[in-house]
Specification:
4 helices, 8-stranded antiparallel sheet, alpha+beta
């Protein structure tokens, strides 16, 4: 149990740092959006991907060749990139905006969200179940976890359950963000981030992420 606790605290600290950096960039970084849908041949960790330019958030990543990672913003539910017609949607600050984020990068951990559910999270759930969208179970992490008050929602009965970690309310008034991470081939990981208000659409979001990863070349077709 102690080993699991230490593992969770380390994994949790890495997740919170990474999550916090991504969350702050989602809110505050100046983006250099493009409405050009031209597909770009981009490599991450040596794996060649093909991604429309108008899905890539930052100009320094919007180029052919090797990049450290790809930060994407995808219109929901059209699964298209930024256009002048959807500019207002991409700037939506509500709890249920019509977009989500994807980050494709080198794997940061041997386990992804589903792996952490079985190896770490389940050891630190409190007894109370949270109200959850249909098809998911919601549990809160205990004080012993090192992530008190954080919430985990997962798909019960699946061998590779959809698992998402939602940050607790921090009093800032900004909408809470949820993150789900999937390890892929080529030593890549894919992080899906969305506002908590979209959690009831978890099935559709998960399918959309998988479809896009096939389209980009991250997942095999």
């Amino acid at each position: 149990m102690r080993l699991a606790s230490i593992s969770l605290m380390i994994a949790g600290a890495m997740l919170v740092i990474n999550f916090g950096l991504r969350w702050s960039s989602d809110l505050f970084e100046t983006e250099d959006k493009s409405s050009d849908p031209t597909p770009l041949a981009v490599s991450v960790n040596g794996m060649r991907l093909t991604v429309p330019a108008n899905m890539i958030r930052y100009g320094n990543e919007r180029r052919e060749g090797e990049v450290l990672r790809l930060d994407l913003q995808i219109h929901w539910p059209s699964l298209e990139g930024y256009t002048s017609a959807t500019a207002k949607d991409f700037a939506d600050t509500s709890a249920t905006p019509p977009f989500f984020y994807l980050t494709i990068q080198k794997q940061q951990s041997a386990t992804d969200s589903a792996g952490r559910l079985s190896s770490v999270y389940q050891h630190f759930f409190t007894d109370d179940r949270l109200k959850a969208p249909e098809g998911l179970v919601g549990r809160k992490l205990s004080e012993d976890s090192g992530l008190p008050g954080e919430e985990v929602y997962f798909e019960p009965g699946s061998t590779r359950p959809f698992t998402v970690h939602c940050m607790r309310e921090d009093g800032t008034g900004y909408p809470t963000t949820c993150i789900s991470e999937v390890n892929a081939s080529g030593g890549l990981s894919v992080q899906l981030r969305f506002r908590r208000g979209l959690l009831p659409e978890w099935r559709e979001l998960s399918r959309a992420m998988n479809a896009l990863m096939v389209r980009f070349g991250v997942f095999p077709s």
